[in-house]
Amino acid sequence: MSNSDGDDRIKVYCTVSGLAEQAICELLRSDAAGSVAEVKELFSVIPLPDQRHLQIFQHQDETYKKPEYDEQSYFLIVDSANPAVDGVLLCNLKGDHGFPDAVREMPAMAGMSAASLGIANTNWSEVRENGWNEQEPRIERIAVYDNRREKEHDFLRLAEAVDYGLHYLYTDLDGLDPDEPPPLTTSLDNLFRYTAVELDNPQSIQDTCRHHQNLAKDKDLNRNIFATIDDNIAEEGVLLVQVQPRKELRCKLPLAGELLWWSAVGLVDWEEMTDLAATHSDIEYKWTIDRMTNLQQTAHAGQKKTFSTTGHDNYKDHNTDDPDEANSGERRFRYYRTKSGLVIASIDVYDIPSTITRQRQESDGVDKNGEMGKMEDIVVEELPWDFYLTRDASEETR
Predict the structure, then answer these.
(1) Are 105 and 78 in contact (CB under 8 A)?
(2) pLDDT in tens, 353-373
(3) Which residues contact 398 (CB under 8 A, 6 or more apart)?
(4) What is the reported pTM?
(5) Which DSSP state fits 104?
(6) What's the gap between Cα 114 and its chain centre?
(7) pLDDT digits (tens, 9 = 90+) for 164-181
(8) Does an H or E element contain 354, and which?
């Protein structure tokens, strides 16, 4: 894949002054590149001292051409003077959910993952899930508190939405057992990244901060950040809290849980979290709950599965039958049907018709090389803004 300097190697950005290229290459040695010389053939170490991570994402996006996902969509950031202990960030320029994304892995594993992603030997969803289960580097779990007076929705569903974050927007629906109804998670103990805590009685955030310090120590949780679900979740979203220095922000699902996790792995700081929370797509609360609880029910009801092709462009004017949406100026998902029958959810606004490139689904079959690679499809129809809500409601009355 061509780019501005002709260097097609996987980029390794180092934000730490004084960390030598040779030392980084030693840490990247793995089954994919067993010697330093082989590492240097595969990776290009670029010093960018004191640069913020999202600035590096912007640099990567502006410097290297990416007609489709390739080796330039994935890169590493060495942001610790001791990466052998603290790990490095394996970055995805724009995940399937439309946002910059990253997981923290040990250097050798991150290098192998980046190489595997670059040749489509694995996908980002798998990398994310594997990262949740890795013991090294150690990433402390985050508490999510149930601080509601009104228990209209099961806390399990809400805690699960925080825990899954943006991940569930493109969760594969294949292989779901129609004989096993939702929830996707059957217990609060089964969360991946968060630890659910049900408070006996609603309390002030100041009291929750004091409570959290003791609980975090006992349960080995992240002591400085936590999420709180209170009675304002429908209108304002999840409350995200930093204990020291004290900071708070609101963010709606599904991005809310992702923001704290990105903070925990070192991808974003609080100011960047605030910016992302203010600009991300406003997914309706009811849609979020219905999507989580109906995911398995609708998977076997005969409709096509969905995936997200969300972008991170500025909001564009868009025809809609929803007057509130038309006047709000907020970025929301649009729903489209393609020529092949696939339904996609996207923040990008497509013309009708419009040719898109997407990952093959099982229903598409393999390409001429026998692989599940990319394919072209045509957007032929825009669906109503309440497509999922009305569909789920009609199925419930059958």
Answers:
(1) no
(2) 888 887 777 777 777 787 777
(3) none
(4) 0.68
(5) E
(6) 17
(7) 888 765 444 344 343 333
(8) strand 354-359
